[in-house]
Amino acid sequence: MLVIYGPTQTGKTSLAINLARKYNGELVSADSRQVYKGLDIGSGKVDFSDTVEKYAGYWIVNGVRINGFDLADPGQQFSAADFLEFAKSSISRIIDKKKLPIIVGGTGFYIKALFEGIDSIGVPSDPELRRKLEKLSTDALYQKLFKLSKNRTESMNESDKANPRRLIRAIEIAIHKKDQGSEIKDESNSQFPFRLETRSRRAIPNSQYLFLGLTAPNEFLFKKADRWLAERIDHGLINEVRDLLENGVDYNWLENLGLEYRWITKYLLDKNSYEESLLRLKGDIHSFVRRQKTWFPKFKNIKLFDISSENFGKSLEKTVSLWYTKENERRKNFA
């Protein structure tokens, strides 16, 4: 199994598709926004030059199946536990077909959960509690979580602290753990509270894997991200958000998604000018890139490749080829 992680605009999906075509693989998307229908341009599912066929739960892109697109309707709750269940079934199905599973995405928590599990598994939603919490301000939610779990609250990044949906889920889990008499273990810079879990709660089966990390200096990635944003705007990003609003998607839900959906929604609702929204969006994307890079030290056995390096492609291809050859030999020996 291959795992590919990296910040936005490192070419993860294009690389994964090329490797899938070479090694008879299928992709499993590990991206918390690409699971939603209609969030295509803003979440950057594919390049505009790609050949795409869309099906329920997966797309065929340039002849390669990508699992994990369009799993949920906009506004619907899709948790990390839901992702793990989907990833488990997808990986098993791909392996049964004698194909290579390739996990690819930029949601660090999803990747981490594949290996270690999450403590929100088994914690049910509490509709009554959520209705009460939804009436509170973001600051009040933060203070409530702080009283329940000071360490967890202080470990959250600024985006999570300002996100009512994530604060409510964190409170829900904290209360459940307290009622069960369980100790809450925190991890910094995560999108959800989690802790190390038993092997049965992981999605990755007992198999050999190669973990690739794509990175580059911040300024290099910032410039790429700015160009990609301009290209997406030219290809209808604003109309995509407008269509979501006109189809009844809650603007609060869109704003809570952050990044493109937050700032374009604010612009369309006349909360900000176009210029201000664009400026704030670029700043948030740059901050997001920095946060994505903080996940690298959390991953064991990850092999980093600098995409700004002239020879990174040859080095990466050699690494994958050697691993694939050794893995095939190992399987033959145990067959």
What does this structure look like?
This protein has 335 residues and is an alpha/beta fold. It has two domains: 2-118 and 199-236 and 296-334, Rossmann fold (3-Layer(aba) Sandwich), CATH 3.40.50; 119-196. It is built from 14 helices and eight strands. The protein has helices at residues 12-23, 80-96, 108-116, 127-133, 138-148, 150-155, 158-161, 164-180, 218-234, 237-246, 251-257, 259-268, 274-293, 312-334; strands spanning 2-5, 25-29, 52-55, 58-61, 64-67, 100-105, 210-215, 302-306. It has an eight-stranded mixed β-sheet, with helices on both faces. A hairpin with a 2-residue loop joins strand 3 and strand 4. Helix 2 crosses helix 3 and helix 10 crosses helix 12. The two termini are 17 Å apart. Residues 183-200 have low confidence and may be disordered. Residues 31-34 are annotated as: Interaction with substrate tRNA. Its EC number is 2.5.1.75.
- Coarse morphology: globular
- Beta-strand portion reads 5-15%
First-to-last CA distance? 17 Å
In which order are the strands of the major sheet placed? 3-4-5-2-6-1-7-8
Give a short account of the largest sheet.
8 strands, mixed
- Poorly predicted tracts of residues: 183-200
SS elements, strand count: 8
Helix content: 40-55%
User: Could you name the CATH topology of the largest domain?
Assistant: Rossmann fold
**Would you tell me the structural class of the helices and strands?**
alpha/beta
Number of structurally distinct domains: 2
Give the overall pLDDT as a whole number. 88
- Annotated CATH homologous superfamily of the largest domain: P-loop containing nucleotide triphosphate hydrolases
Computed over alpha carbons, the radius of gyration is: 20 Å
Named at the architecture level, the CATH assignment of the largest domain is 3-Layer(aba) Sandwich
Keywords: ATP-binding, Magnesium, Nucleotide-binding, Transferase, tRNA processing
Protein name: tRNA dimethylallyltransferase
EC number: 2.5.1.75
GO molecular function, one term: ATP binding
